[in-house]
Amino acid sequence: MVNATLVTSFLLLGFSEDPELQTLCGLLFLLMYLVALISNLLIVTVLTLDPQLQAPMYFFLKNLSLLDISLVSVPIPKFILNSLTHNNSISIPGCALQLFLMTSFSGGETFILTAMSYDRYVAICCPLHYEAIMNDDACMLMAGVSWALAGLFGALYIAGTFSGPFCGSSVIPEFFCNVPSLLKIFCSVTFLVVYPSLGIAMCLGLSCCVCIVFSYVHILSAVLRIPSRKSQCKAFSTCLPHLLVFTIFILSACMVYLRPQADAPTVIDRLPAVFYTVLPPILNPVIYTLRNGDIKWGLRRLLSALHVHQRPFI
């Protein structure tokens, strides 16, 4: 029997009920947020201003950094504010907006990572036709479709998750609104409305994963046929960062959305949500910068230009 008490707002559980620990968590997340924000803004700035970094791979990397900035900026500032003010409540419209933006930006990352895998596939498996296939119009179209599908992805989740009332407990055992936690307090009589939209959204995500795996199977096969060991290492070096970023993002997302929800979650149970929201935006710039000599040289050129510009006139 459905609980007659309808939920009108939510309480984000966070990591602690102790005000001092809440403040400490808020300051820690503020530090992580600034690191993610500054590092990704730096990548976007370099890839935008440096004329030597305008290849399709860097165009998609810039889109990925913009999505990282957007994704981390949805839940973290709200959590920092809640921790510092010791007020963990969030309205239903606020929760719906947060869920829409997070699922949209997460979907956008998945679609952009799929486009990046296709770019690497064409570069390695069809090198003679690379410039013709991955021209400016094709790159803009792929990026535009990725952002548009991301909005559709978020809308499908919203349509399913907020298609009916919530009953019983108003506590969300995370520091942001996510689908598994909301479905636990969703009125069971309306579940038939939820499944189609969530099923379509999951099919979109699964299709992207299949495309990425398919691309890398062909990439690996093509690289292993290259006779030169040096050429093999160079080909792998352009694919390894993307594959590593994709693996971290997918694993962290699966830990949040596919693991069983505990009735009384501990702090350890809430850590996957941190990995999902904070870890990829922090690690992605590091992975691409350390593994890509062109980006490192671009950073040096940018810093040199800033140093020359700031040098006082004598």
What order do the helices and strands come in, and which of them pair?
Blueprint: E1 9-12, H1 19-49, H2 56-72, H3 76-85, E2 89-91, H4 92-125, H5 130-133, H6 136-161, E3 171-172, H7 179-184, H8 191-224, H9 229-257, H10 267-277, H11 279-291, H12 293-310
Parallel strand pairs: 1-3
Antiparallel strand pairs: 1-2
Keywords: Cell membrane, G-protein coupled receptor, Membrane, Olfaction, Receptor, Sensory transduction, Transducer, Transmembrane, Transmembrane helix
Transmembrane segments: 26-47, 59-76, 96-118, 139-159, 198-223, 235-258, 270-290
Domain G-protein coupled receptors family 1 profile: 39-288
Plain-language structure description:
This is Olfactory receptor. The protein has helices at about 20-50, 55-70, 75-85, 90-125, 130-135, 135-160, 180-185, 190-225, 230-255, 265-275, 280-290, 295-310, and strands spanning about 10, 90, 170. It has about 325 residues and is mainly α. A 3-stranded mixed β-sheet has the order 2-1-3. Helix 2 packs antiparallel against helix 4 (about 90-125), helix 4 packs antiparallel against helix 9 and helix 11 (about 280-290) packs across helix 12 (about 295-310). The longest helix is centred in the middle third of the chain and has 34 residues, at about 90-125. The relative contact order is 0.14.
